[in-house]
């Protein structure tokens, strides 16, 4: 997506500005970068998270004098970085600096939104939100045997076969997809109504919040009319 492409660029790159000086890494990360190759050679099958845990343990057990050496290197580079950054900013116009601040702020907000979206998706799944059954082509894919093919080969071959499939065969999958979609929509509606009743409207599509509010207001209005004929 355009968002992911933009996120791979630095703020300066996205704004067409010269690259700023690189922020120096701290003492721990310097030490970790230095010994990581040895750890990987010693434990070639170790997963990345386990390597990270082992690096942290090595750092924790490092003698204070050794830690101090790595941290002093960082402090020295940090002071040099501050001078380089000040020089870099002096060469930019006030508007360019403001644009950088605005873009950094926007990126932080976008990251927070993505994190919140992931958390809501995970929580919704834990609370039993129905899973989307997939479109027509997905139903066709599920009927095929992948065999020994890679995922890329499998998808490419399936797409080619789908294009050459007779219309009457495609119609079978279209009907199946429609039935599953209707069932999914009904289950989703029930689940969303349940979430609203349980005080979790934040997990529900906005349209259903409006519909539920309208229904509640109509019920209250009807009860009021019965009580006051």
From TrEMBL:
Pfam families: HMG_box, HMG_box_2. Residues 1-20, 99-132, 205-229 are annotated as: Disordered. SMART domains: HMG. Residues 21-89, 130-192 bind DNA. InterPro entries: ChromReg_NeuronalGeneExpr (IPR051965), HMG_box_dom (IPR009071), HMG_box_dom_sf (IPR036910). Residues 21-89, 130-192 form the HMG box domain. One of its GO terms (biological process) is regulation of gene expression. One of its GO terms (cellular component) is nucleus. Residues 1-10, 210-229 have a biased composition (Polar residues). One of its GO terms (molecular function) is DNA binding. Keywords: DNA-binding, Nucleus. Residues 104-120 have a biased composition (Basic residues). This is HMG box domain-containing protein. It comes from Meganyctiphanes norvegica (Northern krill). The lineage of its organism: Eukaryota, Metazoa, Ecdysozoa, Arthropoda, Crustacea.
């Amino acid at each position: 997506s355009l968002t992911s492409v933009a996120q791979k660029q630095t703020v300066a790159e996205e704004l067409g500005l010269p690259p700023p000086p690189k922020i120096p890494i701290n003492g721990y990360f310097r030490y970790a970068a230095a010994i990581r190759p040895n750890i990987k050679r010693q434990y070639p099958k170790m997963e990345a998270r386990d390597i990270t845990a082992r690096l942290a343990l090595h750092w924790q057990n490092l003698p204070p004098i050794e830690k101090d050496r790595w941290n002093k290197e960082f402090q020295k580079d940090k002071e040099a970085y501050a001078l380089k950054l000040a020089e870099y900013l002096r060469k930019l116009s006030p508007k360019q600096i403001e644009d950088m601040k605005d873009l950094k702020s926007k990126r932080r907000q976008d990251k927070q939104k993505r994190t919140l979206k992931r958390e809501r998706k995970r929580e919704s799944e834990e609370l039993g939100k129905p899973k989307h059954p997939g479109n027509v082509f997905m139903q066709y894919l599920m009927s095929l045997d992948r065999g020994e093919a890679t995922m890329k080969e499998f998808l490419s071959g399936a797409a080619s076969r789908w294009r050459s499939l007779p219309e009457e065969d495609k119609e079978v999958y279209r009907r199946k997809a429609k039935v599953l979609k209707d069932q999914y929509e009904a289950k989703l509606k029930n689940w969303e109504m349940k979430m609203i009743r349980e005080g979790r409207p934040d997990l529900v599509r906005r349209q259903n919040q409006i519909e539920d509010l309208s229904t509640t207001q109509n019920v209250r209005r009807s009860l009021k009319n019965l009580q006051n004929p």
